[in-house]
Amino acid sequence: MVDGLPVCHFGFPGPLRDKLVAAVLRGEKTATASLRLEYEPEGQDELPVPGSRSVVVDSDERPVAVVETSEVRIVRAGDVDEQFAIDEGEGFESIADWRAAHERFWGSDDYLRAVGLVDVDDDTLVVCQRFRLVERL
């Protein structure tokens, strides 16, 4: 933690995190998605709330920025909209691109080790979080 703020991890350490953090720092990434089940069962991370701030860390766990959550929606994976996909700042040109990339991530070895096997379908609940860059560190 930095100044008592919780840490915000984008992906797992390595090339993907480096890409995502760079997009946050450039102001291109203003949204992120996670599976609702990552916040279950009780005692795990709490859902983000609008107005809350967190510290973004790089692959070496160094603080690089502070972001503030502006919106949190829980939607079915089948209901994620194109604007949200674009706002993730990863160059998605369609919902199909967004879905394929996220299914690869949610099926990756790192994700399996951290969370376990997840069968993602249209009814899987996704936490769609929008944020703004407050400060580069």
Q: Can you list the strand order of the major beta sheet?
A: 1-3-4-5-2
The percentage helix is: 25-40%
User: Judging from the principal axes of the Cα atoms, what is the shape?
Assistant: globular
Question: Percent of residues in beta strands?
Answer: 25-35%
- Mean pLDDT, to the nearest integer, reads 91
SS content category:
alpha+beta
Based on CA atoms alone, the radius of gyration comes out at 14 Å
Secondary-structure element sequence?
Answer: EHEEEHHHE
- Number of helices in the DSSP assignment: 4
Summarize the main sheet. Answer: 5 strands, mixed
Low-confidence region ranges: none
Strand tally, please?
5
CA-to-CA gap between the ends?
13 Å
Can you characterise this structure?
By secondary structure, the protein is α+β, with helices and mostly antiparallel strands. It is built from four helices and five strands; from the N terminus they run E-H-E-E-E-H-H-H-E. It has a five-stranded mixed β-sheet with strand order 1-3-4-5-2. Strand 3 and strand 4 form a beta hairpin. The protein is globular.
Describe what is shown at a glance.
The chain is α+β, with helices and mostly antiparallel strands and about 140 residues long. Helices cover about 25% and strands about 30% of the residues. The chain contains four helices and five strands; from the N terminus they run E-H-E-E-E-H-H-H-E.
Task: Fill in the keyword field for this structure.
137 residues; alpha+beta; five-stranded mixed beta sheet; 5 strands; 28% strand; globular
